[in-house]
Design a protein that fits this description.
- The complex is a heterodimer.
- By secondary structure, chain A is an alpha/beta fold.
- Chain A has a single domain, classed as Alpha-Beta Barrel (TIM Barrel).
- Chain A contains eight helices and 18 strands.
- In chain A, the strands form five sheets. In chain A, strands 3-18-17-12-11-8-7-4 form an eight-stranded parallel beta sheet. A four-stranded antiparallel beta sheet of chain A has the order 5-6-16-13, with no helix packed on it.
- The longest helix of chain A has 15 residues.
- Chain A is globular, with a radius of gyration of 18 Å.
- In chain B, 23% of the residues lie in helices and 35% in strands.
- In chain B, the strands form three sheets. Chain B has a seven-stranded antiparallel beta sheet with strand order 4-3-7-1-2-6-5. In chain B, strands 11-10-9-8-12-13-17 form a seven-stranded mixed beta sheet, sandwiched between helices. Chain B has a three-stranded antiparallel beta sheet with strand order 14-16-15.
- In chain B, β1 and β2 form a beta hairpin.
- Chain B is globular, with a radius of gyration of 19 Å.
- Classes of the chains: A alpha/beta, B alpha/beta.
- Chains A and B meet through β5, β6 and α7 of A and β14 and β15 of B.
- The complex binds flavin-adenine dinucleotide, flavin mononucleotide and FE2/S2 (inorganic) cluster.
- The site of flavin-adenine dinucleotide has 23 residues of chain B, from β4, β6, α2 and α3.
């Protein structure tokens, strides 16, 4: 893969809270493992940041088997945040990432406000973590399993608890499974978020008409991700970027520089690439190169000049 | 694992619905071990989206300075239909070799391959290796092929060309054996009295593996099986290809630190990744009914 870090003619760097990214492209949590899985294909130093798999206080085995099905232009999957837990993340996974000069953002999940806060405290003490992305698309066990991310008060409570537990950059990640996403973005900003990322998957399902069962087996439902959700994600990012002052990170169906630029024009400061990493592990490098070429061709010096310049 | 831009050299129908593709791919041909697979991007458009996993059937020198791999596949959906329309000269983006293949049981004398349908290609490279050893009288090779109907019988000639005994069972009869391959397997182990000195390597539908479980435990015969799961990445990143495994058995066979298996806190099971820990598992590692 061509190296892109030394080209200084255009400035791709952006700030995300206290983190400076050398370019605006990061992997979306859960589609990049812990980085090591992609080391045969790309140099992690070339990325804006690395965002790792969702991490919880205790190890989690996640969903039942038969976790992924393909749908037209996308994926329907239920992984259930299988992960090794925060302690083993710090002991076994983080040392590998410390060798690189790339910010590490840890995506966290939990079943209670206290769990989010506790994981954050533990991560804040670990060397080599720059930011926390909060996955609020998780069931709140104390509230009968209702997802934090679909209740503005619960969203506020989680973000506030994480904010109080750390000085690191805090970035809640919004779910699209709500009626008015801007209310959730505002709640995050009020609770002290440094940035907001969106979106996580849309809840969906798929039925095998022969067996009359879910194609996801006992998991029944899953998250719809990939190219098919891009227009939906883009519109939500545009909506959110208009109502908050903190940087917005766009996620959803990005597979190319053009896709990423659409999000940036809609107001995103940076983007995360999810499902398509699984198809082409090197795609983020192509996207970074493509964004640079676009700016050079149009003789634009940096991303600040185009962010949010979509003309409504 | 690495990316290789291959070129289609030939793509032909073997039997109704079954195809064989030759790809010029010297890198993957040189690196692939029996039972490993590759991940193919069937289109440059973004639909079908995911890469499709296929076992390497055979690594070959095609002549004219072309080395590469052969795949044998069945048309079952959109991706394989796209593949069947590919012509000589077209490019195909591959990632491979992936996964952990078969391990030859040097401690056993009789080696039995048990394959059904498009599970058969997964056994051929191992068959070639065993055939060489059988030629040197180091071991015996037995090949058991299963097909629902005679029309769906594939790769018979290729397997018969190996130094071994080939036995074919057709569910509705009309060949060596009438019925399921697993019944043929049981009878063979029993009648030949080889239980203490044989090893099985199998690839086929999960129902076939399930039918093998009581046979393997009754005769205490080791079996390696190649599992399938839908895959997102093939490289261990997305955790979509998990397979339920038995902790005790996994601990017996594997170095846990270098594996991707995660166990539950309490209880005796966990999830392994088919793309990294597999696709080949020991039959007693797998828990078939979750
Ligand atoms: C390790 C491994 C080796 C394989 N080797 C071979 C082989 O040598 N020859 C062969 O014909 N087939 C093989 N398969 C099965 C092959 O991958 C599927 O038949 C193929 O992916 C179907 O794609 P499709 O688009 O035609 O079907 P669709 O049903 O349209 O596929 C939809 C989605 O489901 C996945 N999928 C469907 N069936 C399977 C399956 N059985 N296993 C895994 N994913 C599946 C597809 O990859 C795709 O993501 C192998 C599978 C695995 C896991
Ligand atoms: C296999 C897989 C695993 C995921 N795991 C997580 C996770 O652990 N935490 C999280 O916040 N989002 C997770 N997501 C959601 C993605 O990070 C992303 O928000 C979503 O896939 C939309 O982006 P995309 O369309 O580019 O894939 C996962 C998505 C996929 C496909
Ligand atoms: S297919 Fe992604 S982890 Fe196995």
């Amino acid at each position: 893969m061509s190296s892109i870090v030394d080209d200084t003619s255009v400035n791709l760097s952006v700030n995300l809270g206290k983190i400076q990214l050398k370019n605006p492209v990061m992997p979306a949590s859960g589609t990049f493992g812990y980085g090591e899985e992609f080391a045969d294909f790309i140099n992690l130093n070339d990325l804006g940041a690395v965002i790792v798999k969702g991490t919880t206080l205790r190890p989690r085995l996640g969903s039942f088997q038969h976790r992924l099905v393909e749908i037209p232009g996308g994926s329907l999957c239920s992984i259930g945040i299988q992960n090794v837990g925060v302690d083993r993340f710090i002991a076994d996974k983080l040392p590998y990432l410390r060798q690189f000069r790339v910010p590490v953002i840890v995506n966290i999940a939990g079943e209670s406000v206290e769990e989010f806060a506790r994981v954050t405290e533990i991560l804040s003490k670990a060397e080599g973590v720059s930011g926390i992305e909060i996955n609020i698309s998780c069931p709140n066990v104390k509230k009968g399993g209702m997802h934090f991310g679909v209740d503005p008060d619960a969203t506020f409570a989680v973000v506030r608890a994480v904010r109080n537990a750390t000085d690191l950059t805090v970035m809640p990640k919004l779910t699209p499974n709500v009626t008015d996403i801007t209310a959730f973005a505002r709640a995050c900003e009020e609770a002290g978020a440094d940035a907001i990322s969106l979106i996580n998957g849309f809840v969906g399902m798929s039925i095998d008409v022969n067996s009359k069962r879910s194609r996801l087996g006992k998991n029944l439902t899953g998250g719809v991700t990939g190219p098919c959700i891009k227009p939906l994600a883009l519109r939500l990012v545009w909506q959110v970027a208009q109502v908050v002052n903190v940087p917005v990170v766009g996620i959803g169906g990005i597979t190319s520089a053009e896709d990423a630029l659409e999000f940036i024009l809609a107001g995103a400061c940076a983007v995360e690439v999810g499902t398509y990493n699984l198809v082409d592990p090197w795609v983020m490098i192509e996207i970074i190169d493509g964004i640079r070429s676009y700016l050079m061709e149009k003789k634009i010096s940096g991303l600040n000049a185009i962010r949010g310049t979509f003309e409504a | 694992m690495f990316r290789e831009e291959s070129t289609v050299l030939a793509n032909e129908e073997l039997a109704p619905g079954f195809w064989k593709m030759r790809l010029v791919a010297p890198g993957i041909a040189a690196a692939t071990k029996p039972g490993q697979f590759i991940n193919i991007k069937v289109t440059r458009c973004k639909d079908p989206l995911f890469r499709r996993p296929f076992t390497v059937f055979r690594c070959s020198d095609f002549g004219g300075g072309n080395t590469g791999i052969e795949l044998v596949y069945e048309i079952v959906g959109r991706g394989t239909r796209v593949m069947s329309a590919m012509r000589k000269g077209e490019g195909l983006d591959l990632i491979g070799p992936l996964g952990r293949g078969f391990e030859l049981r040097h401690d056993k004398r009789v080696h039995i391959l048990v394959g059904s349908g498009v599970g058969l290609p997964a056994l051929f490279m191992l068959g070639e290796e065993l055939s060489l050893a059988a030629g040197r009288r180091e071991l015996e090779l037995v090949i058991m092929i299963d097909a629902k109907t005679k029309k769906r019988l594939i790769l018979e000639e290729e397997f018969r060309s190996l130094n071994g005994k080939t036995m074919i069972s057709i569910h509705d009869g009309g060949y060596d054996y009438h019925g399921y391959v697993t019944e043929m397997l049981r009878t063979y182990i029993d009648e030949e009295g080889i239980a203490a000195d044989c090893a099985i390597y199998a690839c086929g539908p999960e129902l076939m593996f399930k039918a093998m479980v009581p046979i393997c435990s009754q005769y205490n015969v080791p079996a390696q099986i190649s599992m399938e799961r839908n895959m997102g990445c093939g490289v261990g990143a997305c955790l979509s290809c998990v397979c339920r495994v038995n902790k005790e058995a996994v601990m017996k066979y594997r170095d846990i630190r270098s594996s991707h298996v995660q166990f539950e806190d309490e209880g005796n099971s966990g999830y392994a990744l088919v793309c990294r820990d597999g696709p080949v598992f020991n039959i007693d590692e797998v828990i078939f009914d979750e």
